[in-house]
Amino acid sequence: MKIAIIGGGAAGCFAAIETARLLPRADIHIYESLKRPLVKVGLTGGGRCNLTNSFRHVTSAEQVYPRGARLMKRLLKEFGPADTMAWFEREGVELVTQTDECVFPATQKASTIVDTLTRLLAALHVKLHCARRVKAIVATEAGYRLSMADGGDVEAQAVVVTTGGYPREASMSLFRPLALKTVPPVPSLFSFTLADDRLKALSGTVVEQVTARLTTTKFKATGALLITHMGLSGPAILKLSAYAARHLHDSGYRATLSINWWGEATEDDILATLRSHAAPRSARQTGTTTPSHLCRRLWHYLLDAAHIAPHRRWSELQPKELRRLAALLSNHQLSLTGRNPYKEEFVTCGGIALSEIVPSTLESRAHRHLYFAGEALDVDAVTGGFNLQAAWSMGYVVARSLSRALADANDNAANANEACPMD
Q1: Using CA atoms in the order 290, 295, 298, 303, what is the torsion angle rounded to 10 degrees?
Q2: Does 423 map to a domain?
Q3: What single-letter DSSP state applies at residue 73?
Q4: Which of 382, 348, 355 is nearest to 65 (CA)?
Q5: From CA 162, how far away is CA 31, in angstroms rounded?
């Protein structure tokens, strides 16, 4: 029984390992278009591999999976973050959980995860074919025929598609012969470019807790914010980009961004804080008494944006000026002019429509023994290890489903042979 896995990323390699353990006699082949497998795994977490998240502060799947939350809620019950951590620890990988609940190998090196997976592939005799791109999947009476970009065809009785995200809709052309419904791909997880040169001049500045939202919409996110030479990044911005991926794509990445520099505090709360901050410092200049969570350069920028000179003393400020400053700090509006990729990690939303698969098995509804996992499906997550957790969960479920289906098929064939013995 030949099984072809299209894509040598996290979901593909994990599915191959688990399938090989369940079906040791299966002939499993991975076809990866790049020159080596697990490239994105090697880049995630800034090269340290944020392989999952404890989910300790996640109250609902929708909170971290903007698309595919219902499916992921089901899959996480089958193979969740605790299962992922236990799986890698059994393979000798020591893990650490950070204060933000992100889980990394103790070595702080993505190569630890990559090496573990590639070692297991070799030990289980999974054949890895790199620099071999599949350009089309065609259903046949015996299973599937894969048309290869470098010429020739590959036949397989079962196929698992784990091709990752699709940078362009044309990338999904390999599904055309199968007549599957797809969702057009658009970027997710990216930083914002801004037109405000003065703010960009503060590149490298971090504020630990802000709320970022797109005005006139319900899209918002909280977390740390990083000012860059192009605009804004950091967890709050990356989460917002994921939640609003399609909205931002449709608007040409032009929008008005609102930043609450005081986290989730209201304007009235900030005004009360400013008054209590000013009272014992009434004789001091506003520019020399910086709030503890803001650096002085950013504080001066915000004072200027509120039309308050930093040499003004707190006692000189009129009530309306304090109110104006509180209003700006709670709702500082900036013009978003475009997007930048988040370092070298590229995540897209879109892919095979979830209506095309059986949620409990990830098998195609229309084509038997055809499975999908990872970003090949219209499922994606915010930053923090949630995308990789989706890959592990889906790879695990596909392996279990595929092994059961093929075992049943073998039993049926054996029963048929017994019922119709050869003369």
Answers
A1: 0
A2: no
A3: H
A4: 382
A5: 10
Q: Does one domain contain both 58 and 203?
A: no
Taking the C-alpha atoms of residue 8 and residue 164, their distance in angstroms, rounded to an integer, is: 9
Tell me, yes or no, if the pTM score tops 0.85. yes
Sign of CA dihedral 325, 331, 337, 340: positive
Final residue in a domain of this structure, among 341, 373, 406: 341
What confidence tier does 332 reach under pLDDT thresholds 50, 70, 90? Answer: very high
Residue 123 sits in a domain of what CATH number?
Answer: 3.50.50.60
Measured CA to CA in angstroms, residue 155 lies from 145, 158, 159, 286 at distances of: 5, 9, 10, 73
Average the pLDDT over 52-74 and give the result.
Answer: 97
The full length of the chain comes to 423
What domain range includes position 327?
190-341
Average pLDDT over residues 374-389: 95
pLDDT digit string, tens, across residues 154-163? 999 999 999 9
| Sign of the Cα pseudo-torsion (158, 126, 106, 91, in order) | positive
**Residue 377: both structure tokens together:** 């499906």
Looking at the predicted structure, is the pLDDT value of residue 125 above 60? Answer: yes
Which residue spans within 275-397 are E strands per DSSP? Answer: 332-341, 347-352, 357-358, 363-364, 370-372
Residue 407 lies in a domain: yes
Q: What share of the chain is helix, strand, coil (3-state, %, to 5)?
A: 40, 25, 35
Asked, for residue 234, whether it belongs to a domain, the answer is: yes
Supply 259's token pair. Answer: 């930043």
Q: Which residue has the tokens 């994921």?
A: 242
pLDDT of amino acid 415: 55
Q: Which residues, 6 or more positions from 408, have their beta carbon under 8 angstroms from its beta carbon?
A: none
Q: Which residues pair with 213 in a beta bridge?
A: 220, 258
